[in-house]
Amino acid sequence: MSSQDIPEENLPAAQGQAHGAVDVADEKNPFADPGLPPHEHRIQDIDERAAKRSERTVALLFTLSMLATVGFIVAYLTIPVDKIVYVWTLGHISALNLALGGTLGVALFCIGAGAVHWARTLMSDVEVADERHPIEASPEVKAKVMADFRAGAKESQLGRRSLIRNTMFGALALVPLSGVFLLGGLGPAPGTKLRHTAWKKGELLINQNTNEPMRPSDIAVGSLTFAQPEGLDKHEHGYMNEIAKAALMIVRLHPNDIKDKRELEWSHEGIVAYSKICTHVGCPISLYEQQTHHVLCPCHQSTFDLSDGARVIFGPAGHALPQLRIGVNDEGYLEALGDFEEPVGPAFWERG
After folding, report:
1. Domain residues of the chain, as ranges?
2. In CATH terms, is domain 193-351 a member of 3.90.1150.30?
3. Percentage helix, strand, coil, to 5, in the chain?
4. pLDDT in tens, 76-116
5. Where are the alpha helices (DSSP H) in the chain?
């Protein structure tokens, strides 16, 4: 329905021709400018029932956006990360990704579609031409701008159309929650996992080469052996994460060669157990000098003295290797007497 079908007395006042517009070119105005075309009024401008229908449509779109945002949150909390579904033309895809993408897309689309429909059917569509003016606005122009702003705010009918206003505010308030919940997708908080390993009191020391428990008699003076906690299986999920923290160096020294008092107390008959993970960037330490009791990291040559609390004597490592307190159980096997008392591997911000 166009303005031609509406009685003239029902139409809003017609807009005059733009200032300076001319129908025919002349010497003063070499280019013809007929001005703006005649304005055609929309059905919503002259029929309140049509305006109400548009209002309900906009409110419905904003409401759908709110429901989609709620659906996004529910999907994030309830759908397992590893759930796979088959979708025709897409194949097998992650159910969580499909749900999150679909609901977030609907939420954003409905807000955009509602705003566009609101602007096209209810806000004023009268075109206004302004003459160019200097960059510095005069007081009159400033007053006009403020008057235009107030008129635009009134013509938007935001104050009058409370249903649109309330549903729009609700949709805009809920959509940011999607981003908040997406932060959880960065992964679980580390908590205190970096401070603990698989070692605990009573855990047997297992030789990584033979996969057998170790007795003191199995370790010769001057030898280097690598151990891991009992129960770790290299074929199980999560093995690499655990061994990256729990890998152990077993070295046997003459008790008289041990200079550090705590190291001697935490050893057994000269057998000392230190973390295999370098405290510089986490490389596995594998080089041992029997005569000096030094171990060397092959990555950046950090050197630790195992006869003196594994302190750093060369290289970029920031602190000594953590020591594991060990003993012997009733069956004669070497066992841990607890976990490391400090985080293994490179320094991290929690250490300070």
Report:
1. 3-186, 193-351
2. no
3. 40, 15, 45
4. 999 998 899 998 888 889 999 999 999 999 999 999 999 99
5. 43-46, 48-78, 95-121, 139-155, 162-182, 239-246, 261-265
